[in-house]
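Researcher: Here's a chain I'd like modeled. Treat it as a single chain, no partners, no ligands.
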Amino acid sequence: MAHTINFAELAAKYKTAAEPITQNLTQFQQEKKAMLKVGDEAPDFELDSTDGTKVKLSDFRDKQPVLLSFYPLDFTPVCTAQNCGYSQDYAQFEALGVKVLPISVDSKFAHAAFREKYQLSHHLLSDIHRDATKKYDILYEPLNCSKRAYFLVGKDGKIKWMHIENELKDSRTNEELIAAVKSALQEQ
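Model: Modeled as a single isolated chain. Structure tokens:
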């Protein structure tokens, strides 16, 4: 007895089964397109600072470039070295006219203790609700913290340079950051 195949029915069955996969693939492709790149408008945010104020990125527009420096957590070895380095070399960033804004998901209270313990001269921004971290697409989900990432935002509000570390333990030196900032600002 010959078995007949109804190709129209089979195609309809597999099309229905494949729809969730197709929808997920489409969503994934849209998300990949939505990832930030140099030249994009930098997403705005407003975060609490250790100086008691709220800092809004758009407040720097038309005034000065900003280096957003996302780091995972206070009191960890690499993040401590990174922030102590900023304190040490802050004048070099200021000489370039750049405001450095270190950001992590720690609370402003943890930031205050961290800042006091290591006598940091700069203030830290708290992204405790992960709003900025998510807008910049750098949430490291296993630890629910931000990846170590840098975004240079020009006076025009656009991303001029960016770098996202592959590993949480990796970090750019201040010399590398200053060179990248100088190069990006010269290209304007």
